[in-house]
Structures are given as C-alpha cells and as structure tokens.
Amino acid sequence: MIKVEGLYKTLGDQPVLENINLDVNQGEIVAVLGLSGAGKTVLLKHLIGLVQPDKGRVIVNGVDFTSLSEEEMLKVRCEMGYLFQEGALYDFMDVYDNVAFPLKEHTGLKAAEISARVREVLKLVDLEGVEAKMPSELSGGMKKRVGLARAIVLGAKVLLCDEPTSGLDPIRSRDISDLIRHVSRQIGSATVLTSHDVGNSFRIANRLLIINDCRIAAEGTARQLKESKEPFVQEFLQAATS
Ligand SMILES: Nc1ncnc2c1ncn2[C@@H]1O[C@H](COP(=O)(O)OP(=O)(O)O)[C@@H](O)[C@H]1O
Ligand SMILES: [Mg+2]
Q1: pLDDT in tens, 194-207
Q2: At residue 93, does pLDDT exceed 90?
Q3: DSSP alpha helices (H): ranges in the chain?
C-alpha cells in the first residue's frame, strides 16, 4: 500500500531524512516515533506528496509519486486521509459542513447522499448530535474526531495521522488512539501515525520505527523495540516511560 524507498531530504541546508525505507500494508498501523524536530511530519508530508524527496521514491497504492503531475497528485491525495496535527478544521463552518466539504468538492453526490455519508462517518468516530456545532465549541478531543471523520469521508484506504494525541490529556489521548485503531480496522486502511506518545503508539501500532539523526534508529514490534541495543532507542523509551 505504502512504500518508501531510500528517501533523502534536506530542507534549507539541514539534512532531515536520510535513507528512509518503509512498507505499510493494508490493515496495518505503523507508528513513527522520534523527538521534536526529528522529521516525523516531513516524512508524513512525503506520503501525501506535499513534499518531494531529493532522492528515493514514494509509492502509494502502486502509484509512484515521482512522475506525477500536480493534477494526478491531487487525485491520488483524494484517496488518502490526512489528520493534521492541529485538526485543521474550517473555523467558519460547522461540524457537518467540515465533514461534508470533501464530498461537495470531489464527488457528484446529491445532498441526501452527502448527509447520509456524513452521518455514517460521524457515527464511526463516535460523534453524534454535534453536526451544528462550530469548531470553537468543541473540545480538543472532539476536534480530532471531526478531523478524523473528514479524513475518511471520501473512503480513504490510506490514513495518515500527525501527532493525533498532541495537546490532549492522557485519557483523551488513549481514547483517540483507540479510535484510530477502531477506524483503521473498520475501513481496512494502511495507517501511519507520528507521535512522541510511546505508550499509546505501543498499544495500537502493529509496528513502530524511531527516527533519530535523520535515520531509522530502530524498527519493529513494541517488543522488538524494547529489546533494541541502540543506545538512543533505550534512552528514548526510558525517558518516555519514566
Ligand atoms: N519548510 C521547512 N523549511 C526548512 N526546514 C524545515 C521545514 N519544515 C521542517 N523543517 C525542519 O525539518 C526538521 C524536521 O521537522 P518536523 O518533521 O516538523 O519534525 P517533527 O519530528 O517534530 O514532526 C526540523 O528541524 C524542522 O525545523
Ligand atoms: Mg511534527
């Protein structure tokens, strides 16, 4: 589903990512961990074609991004759901219109069909009866849920979540993490999330990787990471759990 091969990226004069390789299959959740500034968001932006690699390739659903025109890229992007770090809801639209927006923009669905689909995805993210609320009336956790609903409303089979638990308290962090796992299973997506929330990432991800010094310092299941001999990995995990 998602494949990254030998990706290198320098921004300004600073190398950010070096020799990143990644495979994510349908039905799998992969967490990308690392310190702030490690390059997690930059990696995620490559997966949606907002950033192009200096070297290496990104292939999603069999489509190599390297040779795509902007128009083709837009089409591919419609098949991917992206939950931005800050939710990125339109402040001037209520919940219903936020979630309906991609359907109005990119499909020829009739109003009744749009309404049915919006209700369906809001139900999937466990939000009902909030259609008329404005984003400013929602808690942080609810905003993330609406962002998640909007990300999947077009039927994405690839779900990318940037720091889904940032800014949330521990209970809401756990809830949104569980919800991402639930939604990923329901839609059968290949899911990549970035996080520095080790506990929740360990709980919901099938595999994890840790980026440090531009490179993948360790990769594997939670158990494999815990057994890693890499000093940075041990320090990172200990700092996160102490
Ligand atoms: N557009 C940009 N121009 C220059 N440097 C950038 C840009 N975007 C990100 N960076 C740098 O790339 C590094 C990785 O950033 P980022 O991926 O946002 O880290 P994080 O792991 O916290 O998500 C940081 O040092 C950041 O300053
Ligand atoms: Mg980030």
Answers
A1: 998 999 999 999 99
A2: yes
A3: 40-47, 70-78, 95-106, 111-124, 140-152, 170-187, 198-204, 222-226, 231-241
Question: How large a percentage of the chain has pLDDT more than 90?
Answer: 88
CATH architecture for the domain at 2-79+157-241: 3-Layer(aba) Sandwich (3.40)
54-91 residue pLDDT tens: 999 999 999 999 889 989 998 888 889 999 877 689 99
Residue boundaries of the structural domains of the chain: 2-79+157-241, 88-155
Q: How far apart are CA 116 and CA 120, in angstroms?
A: 6
Q: Which atom of ligand 1 approaches the CA of 44 most closely?
A: 17
Q: Whose CA is nearest to atom 20 of ligand 1?
A: 37
Distances from the Cα of 72 to the Cα of 61, 76, 195, 219, angstroms: 13, 6, 29, 32
Query: To test the ligand 1 pocket, which listed residue (42, 48, 214) has its Cβ within 8 A of the most ligand atoms?
Result: 42
Q: CB within 6 Å of ligand 1 — which residues?
A: 11-12, 16, 34, 36-42
User: Ligand 2: distance of its center to the CA of 231 in Å?
Assistant: 23
The predicted model gives 101-127 an average pLDDT of 95
